[in-house]
Amino acid sequence: NPVISRHDYAPPAFLIDTVDLEFDLLADHTITRNRMTIRRNPDAVFTRRLELMGEELELLSASIDGHACASQLTATGLVIDDVPETFELTLVTACKPAENTSLSGLYVSNGNFFTQCEAEGFRKISFFPDRPDVMSVYTVTLRANREAYPVLLSNGNLVETGMLEDGRHFARWEDPFRKPSYLFALVAGKLSCVEETITDASGQRKLLQVWVEAHDLDKTRHALDSLIHSIRWDERRFGLGLDLDRFMIVAVSDFNMGAMENKGLNIFNTKYVLARPETATDADYANIEAVVGHEYFHNWTGNRITCRDWFQLSLKEGLTVFRDQEFSADMAAGEGNSGGAARLRDTGSAHATKRIEDVRMLRQTQFAEDAGPMAHPVRPESYQEINNFYTVTIYEKGGEVVRMYQTLLGREGFRAGMDLYFRRHDGQAVTCDDFRAAMADANQRDLSQFERWYSQAGTPRVAVRGAYDPAARTYELTLTQSYPDNPAIKTAKDPLLIPFTIGLVGPTGTDLPLRLDGEAATSTPVFSRVFELTETRTTLRFVDVPVEPVPSLLRDFSAPVVVEYDYTDAQLAFLLAHDSDPFNRWEAGQRLATRALLAAARAAARGATPTFDAAVVDAYGLVLRDHTLAPAFRELVLTLPSEAYLIEQLDVADPDAIHRARQALRRQLAGALRADWLAVYQANRLLGDYRPTPQDAGCRALKNLALAYLVELDDASEAAALARDQYDVANNMTDRFAALGALVHLGGDEARTALDHFYRMFEKEPLVIDKWFALQAAQPGRPDVPTIGIVRGLFAHQAFTLRNPNRARSLIFSFCAANLAEFHRPDGSGYAFWAEQVIALDAMNPQVAARLARTLERWRKFTPALQQKMRAALEQVNAVVRSKDVREIVEKALA
Ligand code: HT7
Ligand code: ZN
């Protein structure tokens, strides 16, 4: 594969001011006429050679200013020599949407047409300089058979519709905003919509639509509400409004990712649009709100201001992740519509709950990526296939980098930086440096050291030591930055500017006032402070400290780093019970459990029976019984660290030992706290209609966690009865699915009966059937029935297809990425299955295949016996792989 390097960036030789596209849509042979007004770029190296990208296209004609012109097809596109300074180029091409299984470019799903152009899909639609720094004004005319394709949509505003001969019709759309080709979209087919007209903050009327297949119309309300909430939130928080007269969301069931922010015409995976209580879980409702927000927020952070090149991807993705996280946290805290109502609710805990969920995900996935062969900086230096760089580092670590600006500059300073960014760069394609400069200039700050967060890969460690001097009443914290070794990382390891929030907790559990040596005493004491670490080693000397405190470090996870501090178990239990920072309360519980689980896993790997100290159980029991804590928060604390997270904490991981250790602790917690679990289960049963509010969802989550613990008991007959009853009476998918999960965990005839019942009940709901596949693929194996046998059986099920990414993910990814003990069975049966599926998907959909390939990239983490089998599977794939997507992943894994 050729390697594309950031340093090779050169401005485009030609600029395209307008693009006039006409489509004659036929599933097996679509004709596209593309008329472009082009001029030489005065800021680029002079050339008369126009080079356009193109893939899987048949060129039917090419003309310049109305005259046929010579052109040469190349391996990557089309070349036209001796072009004038300014000219109009018209290209007519043909493509085959029905044969397009990659779901990139123009394709057919359930008989309807859709496009996906980010990152490099437009080149499958027409020859074009398919790069984000070429921004043009688009006019699009769609022509198609009216009966088969009654709805014709594209970006911007609808300007004309009409009938044509032969039963065809047309629609013309104009998008007044200049945009890169990756934001182009069209949709054509049999779709229905729900719509609402709202008045925006400036008093203008805006038409909002959600388009779905007719039978899904009853599942659109939540997406439409989420869109309205997103618009209101962006107006209020950032002063940003909707700039088009209409905004459309379209749902499609065949889609590679979550959703796509095409200008005015967002295209979504059905999974992030469709919801009604009977079919969607609380998590689905929350995800829909977050993804609708994310795509809507891109309209300013991504579309109005876009990326100069794909190395700057985090400029739009990191910033938009941060925006969607803030939106979801505000919505959870009741700050969605009116700021005032929020004060009545438990806002601190709601914000903390969202923060914990986001950080848990970051640490489980991004920290692992940073420690493996695909490690890369937030602004990568090179890539082979850009689709492989839509990663948790670009998105989630990028979101943390943006959050750190806010932590360093304060909310108002951050907003000033955003305002300046929009004033300077609206309508432009820019870089991460431009964003940093806006933040720095708006706050008169030198943020040059902060650049290292963009250029250095790896997860920094901050080792902390504390020393109390009772005589001097001082407490000294020494903080040392470093990077762990990872041979895949070639970037520098210079000290970062780390915002590090600290509190000191006194023996009664309250925070002590913070004052550094040399600082004047203030009338209003400060109990939590952001310190800026800039050197390899920083010493903070606190004065007037009356007693030895327990340090509360990196409060609210103020930077994406690993904190190393040698807490005792007693100190962790103390912080879990008392820390005023809810994030660090949760963190203390996780540290306590992680330490116990790792020790137990090491014992299990030696063949010993894992055992646990009563202190862990007691600390968890206190939280379980603490009714002053919100149920959602208790559920997070009482959920043990995941097996994937635990694997990352070990030098040599044995997934089976980790699984057994985690199961042993679950069983011990179930047995020791049985009465409490039962009480919590009963206390959090909700009566009445289903509401997907964070409060209700929190009760359901805690109740269903209690059920999951209760089915671990040796005598689980009571739990089985509860599960059966819950399954039968549930008025929502969260409860029904949790009950089904409990029954499947118990196994036997009852599990089979419930699974059959569930399948029959939801046969016509593909998203629910995805859950049905996923649950079975993720179930623990039994000695006589390894899960791989069940997975292979389901692979042959009539409802299974590899061509639909959601379905493929529900079965294959749920097994390979979410059932680690079974996937890593010592006989290598999981790896053989993995290799088969990567190879099969590679020929069909390289993006999905490459994602699956990544589930084996951490193979060097495991025991030698497992490593050997994983390497063999990787080599098997490497020998036959065709796409550059999978090749990049497998080659880097084996390097
Ligand atoms: N900006 C989008 C990223 C994307 C994508 C979406 C759907 C299919 C393929 C895709 N490739 C890249 C989604 C987002 O971050 O909002
Ligand atoms: Zn995005």
From TrEMBL:
CDD domains, alphabetized: M1_APN
Record flagged with keyword Protease: yes
Keywords: Aminopeptidase, Hydrolase, Metal-binding, Metalloprotease, Protease, Zinc
Top class in the EC scheme: hydrolase
Keyword Cytoplasm on entry: no
Domain Peptidase M1 membrane alanine aminopeptidase, first and last residues per copy: 223-453
Gene3D superfamilies assigned to the protein according to its UniProt record, in alphabetical order: 2.60.40.1840, 3.30.2010.30, Neutral Protease Domain 2, Peptidase M1, alanyl aminopeptidase, C-terminal domain, tricorn interacting facor f3 domain
Occurrences of domain Aminopeptidase N-like N-terminal (ranges): 100-183
Superkingdom, natural source: Bacteria
EC identifiers of the protein: 3.4.11.2
GO MF terms held by the record: alanyl aminopeptidase activity
InterPro entries found in the cross-reference section: Aminopeptidase_N-like_N, Aminopeptidase_N-like_N_sf, PepN_Ig-like_sf, Peptidase_M1, Peptidase_M1_dom, Peptidase_M1_pepN, Peptidase_M1_pepN_C, Peptidase_M1_pepN_C_sf
Catalytic activity: Release of an N-terminal amino acid, Xaa-|-Yaa- from a peptide, amide or arylamide. Xaa is preferably Ala, but may be most amino acids including Pro (slow action). When a terminal hydrophobic residue is followed by a prolyl residue, the two may be released as an intact Xaa-Pro dipeptide
UniProt cofactor(s): Zn(2+)
Domain Peptidase M1 alanyl aminopeptidase Ig-like fold: 458-566
Residues in Peptidase M1 alanyl aminopeptidase C-terminal domain copies: 569-895
PANTHER family tied to this protein: PUROMYCIN-SENSITIVE AMINOPEPTIDASE (PTHR46322)
Family that this chain belongs to: Belongs to the peptidase M1 family.
Name of this chain's protein: Aminopeptidase N
Naturally occurring in which organism (per UniProt): Robbsia betulipollinis
Gene designation: pepN
